[in-house]
Amino acid sequence: MPELDVNKVIQRVRLAKTSRDVKLLLIDLTGVPGSVIFDALFPVAVREQGATSGPVAFSAVALHALNPPCRLSVDEAVAALLRSWDISIGEVPWYLAKQFGRDAIVASIERLRAGHLDQTALTRLRTIEYWVGKH
Predict the structure, then answer these.
(1) Is the predicted pLDDT of residue 124 greater than 80, yes or no?
(2) 4, 29, 60, 76, 88 from 85: Cα distances, Å
(3) Torsion, CA 70, CA 74, CA 75, CA 78, rounded to 10
(4) Predicted confidence band at 53 (pLDDT cuts at 50, 70, 90)?
(5) Residue 3 has what DSSP assignment?
(6) Residue 57: which H helix or E strand, with range?
(7) Global pTM value
(8) Is residue 118's pLDDT more than 70?
(9) Sign of dihedral through CA atoms 75, 76, 79, 81?
(10) Residue-wise burial string across 78-106, b where 16 or more C-beta atoms lie within 10 A, e elsewhere
(11) Which helix (H) or strand (E) segment is 63 a member of?
């Protein structure tokens, strides 16, 4: 497969229509530089499903499976989930736990919780705690 950039990675992920397509998707994305994988998939994976034309769920699955180096600090990465992340997608917190370790995620949650957050953000923090406890 020719070298993929961020837009081509997203185009390739869009081709995955069912969970049966994931294996081939991961094969096609293997060998793409981690920075490209992260820059393409993380911003899509932390969005609400249906609110964007991006392939949210399959981006999260591929991000978790391919495990590219996270280009954000732990606090920046966890905070990115507070805006519009679909809490039913556990692969994003699992990915962050693989990157930073469960303890670092829990510590980040505590730091973020100390800020002035709305109820939705607090619910997302509790859900991140739930997901990292399950992985």
Answers:
(1) yes
(2) 25, 23, 10, 14, 9
(3) 70
(4) low
(5) P
(6) helix 56-66
(7) 0.91
(8) yes
(9) negative
(10) bbbbbeebbbebbbbbbbbbebbebebbe
(11) helix 56-66
Q: Of 17-26, 43-52, 91-100, where does the model show the most confidence?
A: 91-100
- CA torsion 88→92→95→97, rounded to 10°? -70
User: What are the tokens at 56?
Assistant: 């949210």
Mean pLDDT of the chain: 92
What does the pLDDT look like over 31-52, one tens digit per residue?
Answer: 999 999 999 999 999 998 875 5
Three-state secondary structure readout of the chain: CCCCCHHHHHHHHHCCCCHHHHHHHHHHHCCCCHHHHHHHHHHHHCCCCCCCCCCHHHHHHHHHHHCCCCCCCHHHHHHHHHHHCCCCCCHHHHHHHHHHCHHHHHHHHHHHHCCCCCHHHHHHHHHHHHHHHCC
